[in-house]
Design a protein that fits this description.
Layout: H1 3-18, H2 25-37, H3 45-49, H4 59-70, H5 80-97, H6 102-116, H7 124-135, H8 144-168
Length: 169
């Protein structure tokens, strides 16, 4: 793992936690160890990476301290709707860049985000992809891989439209 990969992993976990996803202490410690081994330097990083199993409850505050030291601490918008839109953009970004399986990502957008936002029109293409991927059958005459590609394209289009809308406001 390169230094950049380690920093990206720390940033990714920071966002997961900020958006309310459960991230186990073992994963926080492993991310700290990965970062340390990749040459990332932070005053608290070695403490995080060296935690024993019995010390796992100390991992979350140490992880936050490492993020702060590295300038990676992330706070989602305070407004619940704005936070859900930020989460939708983050998940769509992961689908678009290939770091998140399209079926998993579109399902998350459908089941958690779109539901909370009242199924807005902007998320409809991604929700449609989630339905297709979730219920896919070989008899449909379209491959699962093609549905995955459609989901990636829908994520890219969503991000493009969000960027254009934000630039215009």
């Amino acid at each position: 793992m390169t230094r950049d990969d380690a920093l990206k992993q720390l940033s990714h976990i920071a966002r997961e936690r900020a958006f309310g996803r459960d991230v186990g202490s073992d994963r926080l410690i492993q991310a700290g160890l990965d970062a340390l081994m990749a040459g990332v330097e932070s005053p608290t990083l070695a403490m995080l990476a060296g935690l024993l199993r019995s010390e796992e409850p100390e991992a979350p505050p140490l992880f936050d301290q490492v993020l702060e030291e590295l300038g990676l601490l992330f706070h989602p918008p305070a407004d619940r709707r704005a936070a859900q839109w930020a989460l939708a953009c983050w998940v769509a970004g992961q689908i678009a860049d290939g770091s998140l399986d399209p079926a998993t990502g579109t399902h998350l957008i459908w089941a958690d985000i779109a539901y909370d936002l009242g199924y807005p029109e902007e998320l409809e293409p991604l929700v449609h992809c989630a339905h297709n991927l979730d219920g896919w059958e070989a008899s449909w005459g379209v491959s699962f891989e093609e549905l995955n590609r459609e989901a990636v394209e829908a994520a890219k289009q969503f991000l493009s439209k969000r960027s254009a809308a934000e630039a215009g406001s």
